[in-house]
User: Which sequence fits this backbone?
């Protein structure tokens, strides 16, 4: 039986990062829930706040929402009256998203509240200097290079796409 690697610094760090991520996300989601939005919706509203609007591709790049999910999130926010989408001035292919007046009011209220909520949790656990040092250290991990796995098959970095459903037949020949 191979020796246990469970108590090595590598696996201790990995387990701690997973636990910390879960807890920080729980704290963040508790604050977001007060505003009646899904996490991805809140992220998009906070990203559009303090801007004159962003192209949809920019929203996809700046948010934690997957690019494939941005259109669905935007549609939900439009239905709630929080964002509008318009064709760009320079190209009909470009779509620009902006907060509506209602969305801007939500941003003005929710942004500082969420910051205070998360800051209170972080400040209770870490000093300002510790927060800055941790952010710097985590940035190094966020930019990790994928190690060579040798003969092992490459690991997926994204979940597999759901199986597509067969299209219903329309009776027309193709």
Assistant:
């Amino acid at each position: 039986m191979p020796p246990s690697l469970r108590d090595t610094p590598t696996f201790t760090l990995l387990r701690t990062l997973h636990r910390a991520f879960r807890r920080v996300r729980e704290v963040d989601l508790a604050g977001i829930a007060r505003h009646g939005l899904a996490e991805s919706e809140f992220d998009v509203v906070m990203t559009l706040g303090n801007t004159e609007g962003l192209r949809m591709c920019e929203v996809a790049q700046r948010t934690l929402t997957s690019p494939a999910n941005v259109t669905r999130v935007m549609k939900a926010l439009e239905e709630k009256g929080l964002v509008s989408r318009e064709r760009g001035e320079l190209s009909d292919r470009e779509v620009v998203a902006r907060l509506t007046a209602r969305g801007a009011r939500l941003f003005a209220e929710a942004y500082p509240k969420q910051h205070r909520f998360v800051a209170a949790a972080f400040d209770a656990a870490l000093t300002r200097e510790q927060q800055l040092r941790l952010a710097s250290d985590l940035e190094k991990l966020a930019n990790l290079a994928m190690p060579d796995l040798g003969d092992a098959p490459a690991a997926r970095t994204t979940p597999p796409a759901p199986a597509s459903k067969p299209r219903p037949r329309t009776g027309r020949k193709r």
